[in-house]
Amino acid sequence: MRVDELAPAPGSTKRRKRVGRGTGGRGGKTAGRGTKGQQSRGRGKVARGFEGGQMPLKQRLPKLKGFNNPFRVEYYAVNLDALTDIGLSEVTPEILVKAGVAHKGTFVKILGRGTISIPVKVAAHAVSKSAEEAIVAAGGSVTIVPLPFKVRPAAQGNQFMNR
To answer: What is the number of other CB atoms lying within 10 angstroms of the CB of residue 74?
Structure first.
């Protein structure tokens, strides 16, 4: 048995110490709070963020403009010239990650910079209009891969995502 394992017997209770009942009883006068100061007065607590009268940090910092949209979907941009460099007949997000063109776990969007001359089957989370036109003109096809979550319509009054 160790000191940290010591515990009172099951079912035993101990009366609470009644302080501040005069100097005759134990815990009279200052009632165990020491003498003077903020901790000895009232309930001994201060408001969250209070810094002793000094201008609090939240008021010292400048106001920030705007906000971060929690529903923003960021895509990893892959251009047509990168697809041409790979030289494959079929392109998916997984293949782009293996080829080192895109990062793992990102949503891929195909953009229209560059040219493509070979027919390619492209499956991506998003495709720009110019990229889609170039791929179809080269004899390829475009398939949109659905995102792994769905945003509920705001009309229902719920602005949180289903994941």
So the answer is: 8
CATH topology of domain 77-146: Ribosomal Protein L15; Chain: K; domain 2 (3.100.10)
- Structure tokens that stand for 28 in this block: 């009279």
Q: Is 0.70 topped by the overall pTM?
A: no
What's the rounded Cα separation, in Å, for the pair 129 and 51? 56
Residues 6+ apart with CB under 8 A from 95: 86, 88
Domain residue spans in the chain? 77-146
57-79 pLDDT, tens per residue?
Answer: 989 988 878 888 888 888 999 99
Reduce the DSSP state of residue 71 to 3 states and report it.
coil
Phi and psi dihedrals of 6, rounded to 5? -65, 140
Express as a percent the part of the chain with pLDDT over 90. 34
Q: How many other C-beta atoms are found inside a 10 Å radius of the C-beta of residue 97?
A: 16
DSSP tag of 36? S
Instruction: Copy the structure tokens of residue 74.
Output: 């960021």
CB contact set of 16 (below 8 Å; sequence gap of 6+): none
